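Dear H.,

Thanks for agreeing to be a second pair of eyes. The structure we're designing against is below in token form, covering all 252 positions.
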């Protein structure tokens, strides 16, 4: 893969927890404008890896580059400003604000608190119309005036994606976007991820194999903290080492 095609690169990524190596020497290259999935059996190190990439954890060793810049050790806020955003968990949504207001708050956050010009009515109206665009884009127009707390679970997921999109990231990191969703919501969120990825890069940790097969351009398989295989679903799913790693885990 040509260097300029790589938007996110991890080299030798390692995380130890009191002597236990949860992520070991992981090399990862995510190509611009692709959907890349990180999969693996339970305990493989997916969440740890995700937290390292989103800088919620500091690596014991290794480096992370985003758009050619070394971002190892940067704060989550700093990397978000550079265009690498992690989807906010539902807990980050304000439960008693409406869907539209939640997205507007995320847009305001992007503008920054130090400039209070968004308090002017004109700017607020602009933010409101941008918020409605995003709300509509994630299929929540009919829910715009509902309080977030009253949304069905799958719709909360869509709201989470809308608040992340409000930051206008070049790359989005999604942690198990389908977790806890029913079949209908899975279809809807999968379609949303595909739309979002048209002009962005998406890296997701996901357990649902049919979603991974359907959406991913590239899959990296982790097992025991190490990269076991990488490639498109057709190749990776037939890899004997991958099949072996999943045997008896109840996954895949
Ligand atoms: N904070 C922590 N302290 C100690 N061990 C941890 C910690 N976080 C994860 N681990 C261990 O690291 C391994 C990988 O965990 P995790 O990244 O959550 O795997 P996955 O998300 O693939 O299921 C597991 O054995 C887990 O018990
Ligand atoms: Mg996990």
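And this is the sequence the design step returned. I haven't edited it by hand at all.
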């Amino acid at each position: 893969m040509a260097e300029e095609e790589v938007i996110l690169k991890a080299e030798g990524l390692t995380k130890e927890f009191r002597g236990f190596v949860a992520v070991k020497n992981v090399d990862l290259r995510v190509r611009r404008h692709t959907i890349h999935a990180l999969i693996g059996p339970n305990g493989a190190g997916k969440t740890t890896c995700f937290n390292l990439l989103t800088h919620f954890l500091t690596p014991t060793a290794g480096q992370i580059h985003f758009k050619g810049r070394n971002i190892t050790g940067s704060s989550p806020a700093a990397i978000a400003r550079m265009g690498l955003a992690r989807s906010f968990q539902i807990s980050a949504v304000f439960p008693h604000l409406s869907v539209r207001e939640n997205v507007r708050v995320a847009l305001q956050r992007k503008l920054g608190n130090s400039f209070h010009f968004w308090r002017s009515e004109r700017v607020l109206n602009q933010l409101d119309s941008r918020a409605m665009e995003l709300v509509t884009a994630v299929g929540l127009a009919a829910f715009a005036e509902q309080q977030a707390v009253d949304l069905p679970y799958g719709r909360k997921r869509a709201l989470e994606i809308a608040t992340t999109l409000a930051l206008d990231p070049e790359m989005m990191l999604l942690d198990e976007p389908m977790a806890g969703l029913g079949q209908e919501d899975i279809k809807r969120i999968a379609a949303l991820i595909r739309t979002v990825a048209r002009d962005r890069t998406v890296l997701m940790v996901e357990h649902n194999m049919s979603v991974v097969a359907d959406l991913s351009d590239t899959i990296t398989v982790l097992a025991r903290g190490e990269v076991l295989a990488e490639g498109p679903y057709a190749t990776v799913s037939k890899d004997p080492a991958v099949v072996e790693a999943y045997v008896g885990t109840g996954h895949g």
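Two observations from my side: DSSP finds nine helices and ten strands in the chain. The CA atoms of residues 64 and 72 lie 5 Å apart.

Warmly,
E.
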